[in-house]
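[09:14] KT: can someone run the structure on this one? pasting the chain below
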Amino acid sequence: MPLRRSGPARRPLTIAAGTLVSLLSVCVLPLALPGSAGASSDAGKRPAHPERDWMGSTIAAHEGDERPQGSEPRGTAKIVPGVDVSSHNKHVAWPALYRSGVRWAYVKATEGTNYKNPYFAHQYRGSYNAQMIRGAYHFALPDHSSGATQARYFAAHGGAWSRDGRTLPGALDMEYNPYGASCYGKSPLAMVDWIADFFRAYRARTGRDAVIYTSTNWWKACTGNSTRFGRTNPLWIPRYGTSIGPLPAGWRFQTIWQHTSSGKPIGDRNRFNGPYSRLKALANG
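[09:31] RB: done, structure tokens below
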């Protein structure tokens, strides 16, 4: 009945309406937040400096950088030298690397679901044209979106596999968070589930089991030293010393060893654990 009154009664109604609008604003805002937070992609969570996030960039910062000058890794009788590169390497002189003995390369393709390496085409095709075996890798951001979402983004933007005898399966780069807490705010169980989600989606899309790049220290801290992936996913381990040291649980040997975080003329330096024929076998699936 009060709504039909006129004259002096209108003023209290105006005040009440303004109050009602304010209350509605307060109520509506929280309703919008869960939808954005629960989104399956990391829209709005773009990496702040993806050009500084390359394979091992946070490993070196947390675990030490270079091996002693002049020393050589032990146990390297059967190895094939390789490099990994990203956008910070820009234009790579692939023929010169090949002449120096490098026979394979991994190129950063993506990070999260909002970043693509702007030099990827040059680096990926350039290594192939220089007669190298090549592959692509994804820098994981597990706090941005699901593992499956990132695996599909990676496969769609350079990380797919082709049966041409010179394409390696994609690699998942799991290392310290360059933007916050080392384990991306996840419990060990949640982290293992995220990695498994990535691997399932990548295999469904490409038919291949992805390589995993990680350090023993990070693996222990962030997965509880899980043994879940040692039988299916080849291990790529960074260790900047004269020996590899202990491996993460579940793996009896490493497939690739990143033994230094820099190299001449360019790229982090790696050693494939076996002869060239085994490297080709990994490419062939």
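[09:33] KT: thanks! The longest strand covers residues 104-111.
[09:34] RB: yep, looked fine to me
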